[in-house]
Amino acid sequence: MTSLEEKNGNFPNHTRRKGRCWWYDRWFALSAAMILMGCSGLSYTYAVYSEHIKKKLHYSQEQIDNIGAAKDFGAFLGIASGFFYNLYPPWVTVYVGAVLHLFGYGLMWVTMVRDTPTSIWMLCLYMALGNGGDAWVDTACMMTSLQNFEDHRGTAMGILKSQLGLSGAMFVTVYAAFLQPDVNQFLLMLTLVPTALFLLLGFFLSPLPPTEKDKDIKDTMLRFRIIYGMIVLLGIFLTLSMIIEGRLHFGNCGRSFLTILMLVIVSGLYVVPVARKRYVSHPGKCQVGEIDLIPVRASHQKHLDEKSESIAGDFETESFPLRGVPEFVDVESVETSELGNTKEHSEVQKIVDLSVWDCLMAIDFWLVNFVVVSGGGSGLAIINNFAQIGNAARSKDIALFVQIISVGSCFGRITSGYVSDSLMRSGYPRPLCLFIIQITMVISCILLATGGVYFLYIGSALIGMAYGAYWTVSPAIISEVFGVKPFAILYKIIGISPTIGSYILSSKVLGVLYDKQAALYQSVHREENACYGPQCFGFGLVYFSVICFIGALASLWLTQRTWRLYNRKYQLLSSSMN
């Protein structure tokens, strides 16, 4: 093994590229991952075409909810991607995801275009495949970026998660400007554009060692700040565009102009990571055709397990070094040399070495799980049914609501990480943020239950923010309470919790109540497959608010149970800063 390989042999169970071009480094890989993640959040666009499926195939609301739940259950396919990623290069994982995405959305498009009789279970399979393919791409993007930016994992994950949140808004904006009201063309765009980008850019994802110029911390942080600024600018632009368009009712020319401006901002965002590159002093030759795939030592996997860094979503790992400190551990016995690092890895290993079984038997884990099931499940159920909720209020701005939810999700993912870190620095436990999120979800459900059109705008924004915040706060809590070693499995379990909650609450509660109200409405007004008024979804949304309030009480119990643990972390942080 060469000296370069020995130096960078800490990328476990992967392949890395030999003979790289001078322009190909971890920043280029981050830019490619941002683009791919920008095409992986298409599950939020279901509300755009769900009503089209319902009318064309004459489905009931419960059947539409079943298709939406199947779409979310496609995330289960992402569990296999974690094992696959450890065996093959990242681009293979991306290509598998591209094939699944193409088949899933492609067959859905063929079904709508040809208007052929299709079993509902086949449509459920198509949606599960399409969304499952996006989960494979998400795995490759997240893992490579976490490995490439070990010292800034939380920051890198926050950037990628925000792209996932904005992807729905960007695709719907293009649809509203150029394709509306042709829903079939929108499905075709969802099929071809992401697949093409997956195949084109997937090969550029790879764990890459940092170069000499990456040791400049100021340069690295400046790039991250510019990227975050561009993301906020994009979110604000999309929000203002939606408000202006809603007030002035632009025609096709106005929508097209705003969409082109959005694409310019998006292009600038994806160029930022590589725009400030300083070329290496020995660029060498670009050995096209000599990219060699070399199996890398897996011995570093044990080293990664011993690290106290967490790969939790939107959580900067440098802030709190001891993620999984049990109640009986004397924190003061562990010497720390600097913030985010411990002097002795062996002592840290004793702290974070918790088995998966111990975690699954812990009350704290199931409290987190219940909060995410109740709140995240309610949020996902509302997102999947927002087209019908808007129609019941006689609103025609369904695409606008999808954009608001998507932008809100982006801001929720970014701000929740900052707010939860600020609370911890002030001495409060991070689970307190779950209580705030749950209360936000309660308020959102009550506002939507009123059936007022103006409350739909406020409610959709709050739903997006709260739902996005779960994906930032819950992984951080899991990593801090239970440690790094069991994190991957626990995070996957938490990740599928909203899907389970959404299926139960959407198809078995909201859909059933809607169909009963629709039957009463149709018996009076003689309108087929229609229901208008707050009573259509009002009862179900009030039920959701009660479930979320119970989840808020569970989050308070979790806060009380973990207060001592987080107090120790706060003391450790304070002593390290001093």
From TrEMBL:
It holds the Pfam family NFD4_C. Keywords: Membrane, Transmembrane, Transmembrane helix. SUPFAM superfamilies: MFS general substrate transporter (SSF103473). Residues 26-271 form the Nodulin-like domain. The keyword Transmembrane helix applies. Residues 353-566 form the NFD4 C-terminal domain. It is found in: Membrane. Signal peptide: none annotated. It is a multi-pass membrane protein. One of its GO terms (cellular component) is membrane. It comes from the Eukaryota. This is Uncharacterized protein.
